[in-house]
Write a structure and sequence with these properties.
Number of strands: 14
CATH topology of the largest domain: Rossmann fold
Number of helices: 10
Order of helices and strands: EEHEHHEHHEHEEEHHEHEEEEEH
Distance between the termini: 34 Å
Largest sheet: 6 strands, parallel
Shape: elongated
Strand order of the largest sheet: 1-4-3-2-5-6
CATH superfamily of the largest domain: HUPs
Helix content: 25-40%
CATH architecture of the largest domain: 3-Layer(aba) Sandwich
Radius of gyration: 22 Å
Length: 296
Amino acid sequence: MKIISGLRNIDKRFKGGVLTLGIFDGVHIGHQKILKKASTVLTFSPHPMDILSPGNAPPLLTSLEKRMELLSLMGIKICVVANFTNAFSRIPAGEFVSQVLVKKLSTRALVVSTDIAFGYQSRGRIDLLSRLSKKEGFRLIKVTPVYRDGEIVSSTRIRRLIRQGYLEDSERLLGRPYSVTGTVMRGYRRGSLLGFPTANIRPHHEVLPPPGVYCGFVVYNKKRFNALANFGFRPTFYGREKSFEINIFDFKKDIYHKQLEFIFKYYLRRERVFHSKEALIRQIERDKKKAMGKLA
C-alpha cells in the first residue's frame, strides 16, 4: 500500500480510484464493509478529538502505524493521511467535497456509510453528499451500518467493551482479537529474579482492559509467541503506577526499546497480593500452565 503523508503531497498523477474517508480507528467489521468496496482511503492524523477537545480525546483502538497495516491487509492500494488541524476542522462540508474530494483527490467514486457526518461541526450528511455527488460528477456508493445485538458496531462501542473486560465481544466486533502495541522499557527486573523474565511495555495510547492477568500472543519481527501478560499495579510490590509486563514463552532476545504487539485472547484472573516470593512463583507457574492449555 502506498502511503501519502499530507494533501499537499498529492500530484497531478494521482488517480483517486474508489475513495472512502474516515478515521477507521480499529478497522472493525463496520469499517471493513466499506473498505471492501474501496481502493483508496483518506484518513486523518492526529485524531480529530485531539484537536477539537484537547485532553478529552478517547484512547485509540489502533495506532496510526497499526491502522496502516490493517488497511493494507484489507487490500487498500493508496492511503492519504491528511494532517487534521483547527483550520482543517473549519472547512464547510460543501467546500470539503469540492476542494478536497474533487479538486485535490480527483474522486470519481466515493464509498460512505449512510450515517456519515463530515465537514465543519459534522454538518455534512448523506443527503447533502448525494446532491453534491450529482453536481460534482462522481458516483456515490452508500453502505448501511453494521449492527450486532441491535446496536451499531462503532469504535466507541468497542472501546467501552474493552474497558469493561469483554474481550470476546470486542473480538467479535473487530473481526480479530484486540491487541496493543508498545515499546519495551527497562523495568525493575523482578520477573527475572523470580525466574519469569518480563518485557515491560509502554503502550502507544491504545485503550486497555481492566487490570489483571491475561494470556495471548506476542508479535515480534512478524513472528508470534505464546505469552502471559500482567496489566495493573503489581500489588505484591506496592506498585502505584500501572504497568504492562509480558512474559514471552521460549524467548530470550534482547528487545529493549523495540516494539511488541500483544494480542489479548483470554482473561485468567485478577491481580492479588502474595505474601511470599514462593507463593507468587507457584501462582505464575499455574498461570503459565493454564495459558498453555488455552493457547494450544
